[in-house]
Structure formats: C-alpha cells, structure tokens
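Case study.
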Amino acid sequence: MKTVFKIVLLGAGNVATHLGNALFQKGHDICQVYSRTEASASVLARTLQASPVADIAHLQTGADIYLCCLKDAVLHDVLSQVKDFGNALWLHTSGSLPLSVFEPFTQRCGVFYPLQTFSKQREISFEHIPFCLEAKHEEDLQIMKDLAASLSDDVREMTSAQRQNLHVAAVFACNFTNSLYVMAQEILAYDKIDFSILQPLIEETAAKVRHAEPARVQTGPAVRMDRNVMDKHIAWLEARGEQEKAALYENMSLLIYEKSQQENKHNP
Amino acid sequence: MKTVFKIVLLGAGNVATHLGNALFQKGHDICQVYSRTEASASVLARTLQASPVADIAHLQTGADIYLCCLKDAVLHDVLSQVKDFGNALWLHTSGSLPLSVFEPFTQRCGVFYPLQTFSKQREISFEHIPFCLEAKHEEDLQIMKDLAASLSDDVREMTSAQRQNLHVAAVFACNFTNSLYVMAQEILAYDKIDFSILQPLIEETAAKVRHAEPARVQTGPAVRMDRNVMDKHIAWLEARGEQEKAALYENMSLLIYEKSQQENKHNP
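After joint prediction, the assembly is written out as follows.
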C-alpha cells in the first residue's frame, strides 16, 4: 500500500529542488511551487508538473501537505502572509528552526528534516538519507513517516533540541570538512598539482569512519606530536603568506594531539 | 610481462604492514622484515613469509629493493647503522622527507610515496592509490614505476618540493577532516545521538568533490553569513563549555564566508 500525497512546495532552492524531484519521482502530486522569484518558481514547477506561484495570496488551499523548504530567515515572514492554513499539515525542512515557529499560525505542523548536503547540478539518491521527524500531533507524525518512508529507509523521530545538536555536528562534519577540501586545493595550486590526486584519500577518510570510531583511526603528524614535520608544514604555509592556514594548522594539530592523549589513556 | 622483485622491508607499522601485504599478494618476494621491536618484526614477517630481523647489523645483502617504511625521525638513524648498501635500490615512503636523506649513504635511491591513510584493522585496496615517485637515477625510476604499477593504476613522478606541498594538503584533507569527524561525534554525544547518522552526509561531502570544485559546492550557514544560525550554534557550544569548538566554529565560518565572497566575484 502506498499513500500519494497532494503537496504544495514552498521554496525553489537546492532543498526544494532535490526534495521536490524525489517526491515527484515517487509519484506524489506536487500541485504548486511557490517562490517569491517568479522565474525560479516557474522553472521548478515545470519539472514537477505543478503550477508556479510568486504571491503567497495565491497559494491554493486543499492540499494535504505544505512543505516549506525556505531559508530560516524567510519562513516566519512567509507564514505570516498565509491567509488560510485550512486543515492541512504544514512542514518545514530546517535543521535549526524549532517546531514552534509554526505555533502562532497553525497547530497541524511538523519538521521534516533530511540530513544531507544539497548542491545544484548534483543528483542525490534519497534512499539512505536520514529523515529526522518531529510533529505536534501523533496522527501527523504517522503521515510524515509515510511520506519519508516513500523516499528513504532511514526515518527517525527527533526533538527540536536533538535536531539543533545534530545540525551543529553536521556543520563540523560537512561544511567545515568541505572548507578543508577548499584549503587543500588552494595549497596544491602553489605547485600546480591537480586536486583530483586527493580524491582516493578523501573518500577513504570518509569511508573509514563507517566501521571505526573516528578518534581510533586518526592519523598524521599531530597524533604523535611530530613537531619536526608540523613545523616544516607551518613554515611552508607561512613562507607563502598563508598565515590563516598556518594558524589553523597549529590549532587543529593541538586539538588532535590532546584528543589522542585522552584516547591513549582510555584505550592504552 | 611482470617483474618480481626481491624486497627487504624496513618497518612494521601501518604503512609497512599494508604495503608489505599488497606487495606480497602481488607475488613479490619479501625476504626480510626489519623492526627494532622483535615481536613486531616477527608478526609481520610471518604473514609475508619473510625472516624477521631486529638488528640492522643482520640485514641481508643482495635484495633488489630496500623499502623503508619508517618514521621520519628514525630513518636517518637506521640508515647510519647500515654497513653495506651494496648495489641495491633504497626507497623511503615518507611524504615529508626529501630524496636527499639518502645522499650521505647511497646513490641508488628513491621516494615511493603512496598517498593514503593507513589504519590497523582496515583493509585497503591499492588499486587507485596515487603513487608519487622520485628517483636519483632514470633507470631506477623505471624499476619503481614497475613496482608501483604492480599495485596501482595511478603512478606519478613528483619532486621532493611537490611532495612536500602534497603532504601539507593531505594533512588538511585527511587528518584535519578526521578530527572534525571526532568533534562531530563528541557534539552528538550530548544528546546520545549515534555518530552513524552522519555517515551518508560525510560520504556525500567526500564524493561531491569528485566532479565539482570544492568551493562551488560549499553549503551551510557560513556561506551566506547567516549570523542568526551561526550565533545559535556558537551559543549552543559555549553553553556546554565547548570553548575550543566554539572558537573553531567562528574561525572556520569566517574563512568559508571570505572564500565564498571571492567565488561570487569570480563566478557571479
């Protein structure tokens, strides 16, 4: 048995695009796409065989679910313009906004947070993406579980507080990690070495923590406080005017060394 | 045609173990394994059907290749104890030591650097690992290329200066990245959220840069300098006494934002 939902999609950015496409491909009926930029609404609506709308006043009523994939700063503003919430279920997909943002407006509400990094021009499979759900009402939670389960095999309940925690952790594991890739590419550029040389290392580093505690598989000069190598690396960066990277190198190395000392104490 | 080399392996750590196993599996003859810890030499030698040796004075002569997988700080000391370098080819596997470490001792020498992170209890496929080679003599470079090609399809020549650069970049892309995974796990522990929830995100973050410039796929609150979310995250960390992570959060976010401003200027 499969439930097909009638969905109004609010937003036309990366999350709206990827999530909208996935829902559409699973047979859900995306009836309308809202974006305050008319062109963005049109482009996405065309793909999803939906109607575009650029004015909240023209939002249709009677859908099952209103799925808000909007920037945190915009959601409250958009909600305050909605005239009729009807009896529909309203969801947002934000990692950092609590469920309670909906409370001044409607009681049938929930959070539908897919934990993934979405970029334009990159296909994403939702199959194993964790969906973190929170609902005001138990009956709505069941609807959200059905919706999430139509996309992914990893559906979890999570409170707003847990999701806030998860979002902070995700910034470290994803956003900051990507910025280290950016820095590595900038470093390699000094000798015209192509970034692709790092790809097997990057993917192995990521794959390794699937089965091992990250702290147990930490490698590199900082684990053993190899000052000789570390100082050479820092001097290399400083000689190229890369003061910020040199400072970050020192800082991260100390954090790694401290942690490895703790690890050795607990797991000698 | 395939050349089988007679190899003496110096070292019994992670690199020696993984590289020794791979060479053994490809049919090369590992005749001796040296480690100053006799037990370590014995364990690895048994796996590789080699003789263990814990005293440099008992190193056998007449092998084709002496492969030094030793800590940087130890290599010079070990070399200074070797009595007879014979006419063999001596190689080291270090990212940060120059070729010239061999020069006081022998002229037939080279660097055989596999760019990967090696941990105990984790099988590694060498198939696509970049091998970065440097040799004193052209004839030896050909031998090293044959040896590397027996393990991997990615064999490159690289000067000591380029390899030094690469090693710095690898510390950022691998060692520092893993330490971000460690921090993410520590953060999740506050709400008893299992680290495995991040695995799809971590692997997607790594896979994404295979086909895209890292700077073009940067996501998260810092790209758009979303101070509202950033301040919530920093306050969250500070409220838990995580001052170091809070400071790192601020610092990394600024680096990400600066970079994204540059990107927008060049690729509006």
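Observations recorded in class. Chain A has eight helices and eight strands. The radius of gyration of chain A is 23 Å. We will return to this complex in the next lecture.
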